[in-house]
Amino acid sequence: MPRANSKVASHRRKKRILKLAKGYWGARKNVWTVAKHHIEKGLLHAYVGRKLKKRQYRRLWIVRINAAARINGTTYSRLIHALKLKNIMINRKILADFAMNRPEVFASIVKQAMS
């Protein structure tokens, strides 16, 4: 009885990895073991990067809110504390957008929170 081998499955697996490695430089694009290593590493970095992106955006929003708050005579921490005390439920993404694009709306929010 002939030995069964998973030729079709292994070929498809290799084809999928080498397709993902398209555009890589040198042996990374066409040598199976090297391509496999770099694809796995790249996918790992992509996973971590998706988590880091959320942190970086939050930091950016806080910087923008702080800059606009200082223009309006307060600081970021005082503004956030005042918003919580007044039960004004508005997230940092929207606050940062108001700070950048609608400064008059942001100023009215600061005035409402600080009064």
Question: What would you note in describing this structure?
Answer:
- The protein has one domain: c-terminal domain of poly(a) binding protein.
- It starts with 6 loop residues before the first helix and ends with a helix.
- The protein has helices spanning 7-20, 32-71, 76-85, 92-101, 103-114.
- It is rod-shaped and about 85 Å long.
- The protein is mostly helical and 115 residues long.
- The protein is built from 5 helices and no strands.
- 75% of the residues lie in helices and 0% in strands.
What is the overall shape? rod-shaped
By CATH reckoning, the class would read Mainly Alpha
Continuous helix count: 5
Largest sheet: none
What distance lies between the first and last C-alpha atoms, to the nearest angstrom?
Answer: 87 Å
Kindly list the characteristics that best describe this protein.
mainly alpha, c-terminal domain of poly(a) binding protein, 75% helix
Topology (elements, then pairings):
Layout lengths: L6 H14 L11 H40 L4 H10 L6 H10 L1 H12 L1
Give a short summary of the structure.
The protein is mostly helical. 75% of the residues lie in helices and 0% in strands. It is rod-shaped, with a radius of gyration of 26 Å.
